Structure formats: C-alpha cells, structure tokens
Amino acid sequence: MADSFIQGIDAHLAVAAALRDRAGLLQGMADQIVSTLKAGGTVYTIGNGGSAADAQHIAAELLGRFKLDRPAFSAAALTTDTSTITAVANDLGADRIFDRQVEGLVGPDDLVWALSVSGTSPNILGAIKRAKEIGAFLIGFTGESGGEMAGLCDLCLNAAHASADRVQEIHVLAYHLICEHVERILA
User: Domain segments of the chain: what residues?
Assistant: First the structure.
C-alpha cells in the first residue's frame, strides 16, 4: 500500500527536477510581470476547475501579499465573478466566459496568465486569442503536450507530465517562485 504513495512522491520529484531546467523561463515570466506592473498594467488570471483555484491563488498573492508587506499589485482572477460567468455562459455560451471578460477589461498594457492542464480548453483558448488581438502579453501554464495553447502564448510553461495532479503541483511551485521574485523586485 505504501508503494503507491512512494510512486506518487517519486513522480512529483521527477517533475519538480525537470522544472530546474526551466528556471530561465520562470525568470522571463517574472520579469514580464514586473514590467507590466511597473507600466501600470494589470495581471489577469484564468483557468477552469483546479486551475481556476490556482488562478485565484496567483491573483491573491499579487494583490494581497506573498511574503513581504508592500503595496498591492494590480491583479484580478477572471474566475471569481459568478454573476458575469453565469450570465455570459447563459447568454453567449460557456466557451465565451473568459474571452468576453478579456474583451471588456484587458488592454494592450496588461498581461493574461492562463492555466490549462490540457492546453485545449475552448474557453481558455478563446480568451488567449482575444487577448492576443488586443495586444496583451500572454503567459501560459499547461501540461506536457501543451495543446494548442502552448503555441499561442508569448511564454509557456509545459510541466513535464501528462497527469493533471502532477502538472498542477508543479504549477503551484512555479507560480510561487514567480510571485516571490515579482514581490522581491517591486517591494
């Protein structure tokens, strides 16, 4: 029985070790977020399910605080307004819940940070395409294959695993590292 726990821990450690090779990418993402915030832009985050929770977590770390007492950074999760989400889903379809918000809120000086384990979620892809039309910078977090999303983002982290749990665990580690760097630079 304990072997299954050990196998899960070993898989996690292997994916985390692969993240070491992506430290430059994480640095580039953090630097772009710093540039966006310094220029007066906002970081908007999106995701479905567990990735929605991660999107909210990222926005909270940036807007609230992570490790340091400092002024708030402009960040918002587009996963939290249930009235907007349900109205858009009802009136325009669930595939439009994020791109409609991007259309109304995001400008060319902003950054959209999308999370999708598969990289194929229609509502995420629609939002990315809309943000690209607007001229916003796009950061993606996805799984091993990256789906269509990987090719649409300016910078994209593909966690080195196909299983959603391992991918999301690495996403948490990666965004905590990014948030820590952003806070350290801007605080």
Answer: 2-186
What is the residue-level pLDDT of the chain in tens, covering all 187 positions?
689 999 999 999 999 999 999 999 999 999 999 999 999 999 999 999 999 999 999 999 999 999 999 999 999 999 999 999 999 999 999 999 999 999 999 999 999 999 999 999 999 999 999 999 999 999 999 999 999 999 999 999 999 999 999 999 999 999 999 999 999 999 9
Instruction: Find all residues with CB under 8 Å of 91, minimum gap 6, and list them.
Output: none
CATH of domain 2-186: 3.40.50.10490
